[in-house]
Amino acid sequence: MPPRFAEATADAMPLHVIDSAGCADWLACRPEAERAWAEACGFTGALGSALMLPGPDGRPVGAVAGHGDAAARARTRFPLAAALPGLAPGTYALTAPLPETECLGWLLANYRFDRYRAGDAPARHLVAPEGVDAPRIEALAAAECLTRDLVNIPAADMGPEALETAARVLAQEFGAGITVTTGDALLEQDFPMIHAVGRAAAQAPRLIDMRWGDRGPTLTLVGKGVCFDTGGLNLKPGASMGLMKKDMGGAANTLGLARAIMALDLPLRLRLLIPAVENSVAGNSFRPGDILTSRKGLTVEINNTDAEGRLVLADALCLGDEEDPDLMISMATLTGAARVAVGPDLAPFYTDDDALAQALAQGGAAQADPVWRMPFHAPYEAMIEPGIADLDNAPSGGFAGSITAALFLRRFTSPGRRYAHFDIYAWQPKPEPGRPKGGLGQGPRAILAALPQVLDL
Fold first, then answer.
1. What region holds the Cytosol aminopeptidase domain (predicted)?
2. pLDDT of the residue at 43
């Protein structure tokens, strides 16, 4: 179950959140025994520090969490969550208000991926502080936890069939409609590149199409659902294949975002498209040198079968574009070049729309979901034009790999389309407060915060 706020009860322990500058003043106002205990334990309000406050019988009656200084807080997404490991399991109530992102960080710090491991980890519950939008924070936490779960599940249990099941479960929960085009029906309905990438796998490729809402502007999300990527005939080395269960991180993030949109009942019409495939090796694998004809009619020369994500996204983007949505967003774990450029902590995105870019940047800053705009650099268009076909799926040379991938995808949207593409990592490589190692949501909260301004909701 996604983490939720606790009910306010008499036995909830008060939690004081004290920064470094205010620690001495706070201690001076505490009872003598409590002050002596805190001083003996060396509590200074440093970020990540925590101290249980004992009552007369030695049992804890409250706690204090260090909030550090501004410089320390700037170095972590959820500063309060850093103190959770030092708090005893139980239920806590804040004694002073904090930003809603800190409450979200607390909930996310209680996330556990326990599908393959028995036993309950001790939880630290938080009573929803007065004045915060608790249902919204819980909806954001549930969306993030869905994304993390989907990315964390290994490919043996999260192939195209299981990804379809996850989408169907979500659709049923919120009354959304869903259709799925599978196997050779992809060719019959003109999705040739999705079929080509996924046809060699044990599970048939498919296009998942979910719709929700009957009022307001139209939003189409497209998520890359490559459930495992061997690289195809351009086989990845073993070291590069180890994390490829996360190559459906774009799909996982769009499913999480869709969940939040539906849970919050936003007044818009949502469409979610997920091309779900596994890029495998068999006698019928697509090959380097092949030329594929896309749904849009553009031909694509395959110069590397490991650049498959943009192929499946292209057919799905073309389908979404045909309905002329007010806004279209694609998300993918697409390029190592993006990871090298900005590292795993930032979600890079591309758009030609300055107002959309500003809204996304502001939303990311407000929601502890940082994003970074990258350029659709027109002079690089020639790099994706091989001469033998309209487009090249993997330009040689290695320069600007994230930009050329984004330029490739933009070719499958109409000129002037309000569109943004996110080239995300979707993985937390080492534990951080509120973000355990593993699958990660990157961008959905920034997008969600931008939607009211961008779509005039």
1. 304-311
2. 97
Question: Of residues 4, 30, 136, 236, which has the active-site annotation?
Answer: 236
Q: Among residues 332, 231, 222, which one has the least CA distance to residue 280?
A: 231
Catalytic residue among 310, 339, 417, 445: 310
User: 250 in helix, strand or coil?
Assistant: helix
- Tokens 């201690």 -> residue: 27
Residue 12 pLDDT: 95
Phi, psi of 421 (to 5 degrees): -120, 130
**The pLDDT of residue 294:** 98
AA letter at 77: R
d(CA 337, CA 107): 32
CB 210 within 8 A of CB 258: yes
Could you confirm whether 236 is annotated as catalytic? yes
Residue 99 to residue 436: CA distance in whole angstroms: 21
| N-to-C CA span, the chain | 30
Contact 78, 102 (CB under 8 A): yes
310 is catalytic: yes
With cut-offs at 50, 70 and 90, classify the pLDDT of residue 119.
Answer: confident
C-alpha–C-alpha distance, residues 31 and 27, integer Å: 8
Whole-number average pLDDT of the chain: 96
